[in-house]
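not sure who needs this but someone in the group chat was asking about Protein HID1 from Adineta ricciae so here u go. i didnt clean anything up, its just raw.
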Amino acid sequence: MGNTDSKIDFRVAVVQLTSRSQQIESNDESFWDQFWSDKISSVQDIFALVPAAEIRALREELPSNLAILCNKLVDRLQMAAENSCQTQRDQTAAINCVRLLTRLLPYIFEEPEWRGFFWSDIPTGPQQTTSNGECVSKPPLAERLLQTLADLLFCPDFTVSSKKKKGPDNPEDIHTIDSCEYIWEAGVGFSQSPVHTPSNDRNRTEILKLLLVCFSETIYMNPSAELQLHSNKWLTYFTSGHNRQTLPLFTSLINIVFSYDPVGYLPYNYLLFTDTREPLVEVAAQLLCITLDHNSSILSDQAPSSPTNQMSSGDDCPNLFVNYLSRIHRDDDFSILLKGFCRLLNNPLIQTYLPGSCKKIGFYQELLILFWKFCDRNKKFLYYVLKSSEVLDVLVPILYFLNDARSDTSKTGLMHIGVFILLLLSGERNFGVRLNKPYVTRVPMDIPVFTGTHADLLIIVFHKIIVSAHQRLQPLYDCLLTIIVNISPYLKTLSMVSSNKLIHLLEAFSSPWFLFAAPENHHLVFFLLEAFNNLIQYQFDGNASLVYSIIRKRQVFFALSNLATDTQTISKLSTKSSTVTSFTKSSPDKSDNKQTLFQNNIKSNTQEGLTLSKEHLTPAGMNNAMTTTLAETPSIHKMTERTLAASPNLDDRQRVRLDGDNETSPNTTQPSSPTSQHGGTISSANHFSDSGIWSPTSQWVQSWKAKLPLQTIMRLLQVLVPQVEKICMDRGLTDESEIIKFLQHGTLVGLLPVPHPILIRKYQPNSGTVMWFRTYMWGVIYLRNVDPPIWYDTDVKLFEIQRV
């Protein structure tokens, strides 16, 4: 009954604040004290007792009351911090101030005229003066708030365990202690494992959530010039040297995330005990994502060409979180990080004999964003991952997520980030080499049974994505095939299952009606042919199954070689394709307008934009599942740059000659770029009718057909088909295993064209990817923070919220 009465008292105070016609005096301390008293026991109470409509009314009709309230909340937080939160009263007041600011700030950010309020120098009370009589103004409210929150995260007996005996004779002053001795968990750069106190975890979580809210001004800006022109002042200050807690906080966030083990040693432990650590780990991961994203738009334009340059770009960065991440270099630290990634990413895949006995985490999307950031910001970490066998323990869960999400339009963002990470990894030789390890551990995926390597698993999952996913994933086709091309020179043995999958993709993508359906569809054929050429030229001895599949499906290659280029045939075939889809002049380079190639029963969301899912949670007020739109997927030629990999089969003179012989050697063309030679010397933009419908022409088809890299495969067929036919007739062979055995002992040495140089398409930083990640990241954070629903029903501009 008493608790109900105290909530009523708090509600009365809120009503008074929003309904009085006159300004409430700032010195009416008894009135203001009600907002941080012990009448409120949870953040849910705050959200229930302070409705959105009343916050907006306060902002519009009584702005002075809102301004005083914000000042009072920050002042009270500062007072608690200066007292080192040594009393229960100070601790209660601090947490309730944090909760109330968490509720208010989104409504301040959604109104452009209010965004400068926390950074203004408006005097709020008696001014101090120097000996010369000059006025000394307080720092802006935002700076005071951010520094106070940072200090409170290392407050003994509030957010960290005290190192001294408790009592009035042994107080620990928050301003004199060395915060680096109070890092939250052992791990990178810190070896001591502090005492775990649940109340500390809860307080840290609430403060970190308020920091998330402080930085969320970004989501109230349009994803265009406004976001590029206006840097986030909150983030700029917090990640700079002005914040004295950057190093201990960065280390604490890293260690609290990557030391977390959700499973533990006792089955069903999460049902028996309240886990205060998981909410903290989740919000810590989200805060790391945001702080490491800041200033990425500046870095993205540099595109350093060497690991040294990449590292120095982090060293020079004014964002100290990025700076510290780029400086991590010890193998022991990298091992802690990589083991943490592997443990947490594999958690959703865990299977036990006791159903539901292991806790499953929900923040794997944040982990994938962090993995991307770590590899992108610290090239030494990327190279450590690639030289470690544990890179496969990152690959398998990503393939699991891709396969699981492929048919769900609400998980398109998850699909994209998984593919982007694999694209980044595939640009390095070690990744392709590691894929030759046999795939033994079986993960629950609905894919064909096979015996083979991790490369087979990757190809089979990619095939499944392309043939059975929804239409919104078509922009990823180029990325998926680029990954296959990048790894193809290093794959020693493909299974029959994966070999057939690759041939099936070529068969589908090379059908004339698909080739003529859109101006860039033929690029997919170039990718696959390049992958086949790499496998034949560099890994022929171990790929008898692939060679057999090529021989068995040789008509596909013959049909490509004899593809019609006359106007009449093209017109007939393109008429067939245009009955399914049209390609408008207004968006000539959008790959999502490609014709749907594989029939499936997936129901695609009809609304524009990409979506990601709200995980599991549906609190009051958010009962309908929601998604958020994403920024446009960057094209593959903007995301990658061509590099020439070292080839043991080529000397320098051959490499120079082949690299400069693009006209005569189709193998050196660049399938990924619409401006490349195989893309045609005739611009596809010239083939739009007056009505804006794109249509292929004879000249356009001839411009890229002449550059199809078919020489190697045609030579292989010319040599091997007669041999296979002869042995089948002479020995009466009908069993494919016998034919494969024959092919394994065959050789094409001296019979194939000179091996072409290996072209690798490496990811390069670009503004499109930066914007995509920022939108996706904030969309994930928006949807994951639903208890309480921090940003729900506010005027977000960065993305659209859609109900599923």
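also The beta strands are 128-129, 135-136, 626-628, 640-645, 758-763, 801-803. if thats useful
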